[in-house]
Amino acid sequence: MLFLVLLACSDETVINWAQYNAPDNAVTVVVGSIDLLPTVDVMLTSSTGTVEIGGASVDPGGGPLGTISTLTIEVLEDYAADIGRVSVQTDSGSRGKDAFDLRRDSASDGIWVGEIQSVGEEGEVREDQFLFQLWQED
To answer: I need a surface site. Which of 10, 65, 89, 127 has the fewest CB within 10 A?
Structure first.
């Protein structure tokens, strides 16, 4: 019996992901500004950039160091079931790149959310790029 349990635990399924949206669906966020900045958003398009599949926003679109911004992805109903994962890749210039997954809303397949807090040195002002990536199981 123990042998069967070990077999069940060692079975790892590998999921391959294919990017569903265009590779240039991104916004720029100002880090280190004095004031909170308005929401920035971008229309999300299909892999060829020809079909609107949703939208992404970052609120606020910038602010002082330590600002917590909410990232929201809204995938249109016709495409929501195709998306199995959403991630955001951040590019902070000399500070480097990072990536993290958003979480799907429990009440809507098409809404994904996450939060990110800006960091930096006192007096630092820069523009970070947030690249939105919608993934379909391959």
So the answer is: 10
Mean pLDDT of 17-21: 97
The answer to whether 44 and 27 have CB atoms below 8 angstroms apart is no
Q: What is the DSSP letter of 48?
A: T
Q: Are 25 and 42 in contact (CB under 8 A)?
A: yes
Kind and range of the H or E run holding 6: helix 2-10
Question: Tokens in use for 87?
Answer: 């991630």
* Residue 51, C-beta contacts closer than 8 angstroms, at least 6 positions apart: 45
Task: Give the pairing of strands 17-19 and 126-137.
Answer: antiparallel
pLDDT of 26: 98
pTM beyond 0.85: yes
| Residues contacting residue 137 through CB under 8 Å, at least 6 positions apart | 15, 16, 17, 18, 84
Q: Which tens digits make up the pLDDT trace of 45-93?
A: 999 999 999 999 999 999 999 999 999 999 999 999 999 999 999 999 9
Identify the architecture of domain 36-137 in CATH: Sandwich (2.60)
Token pair, residue 113, equals: 């959310």
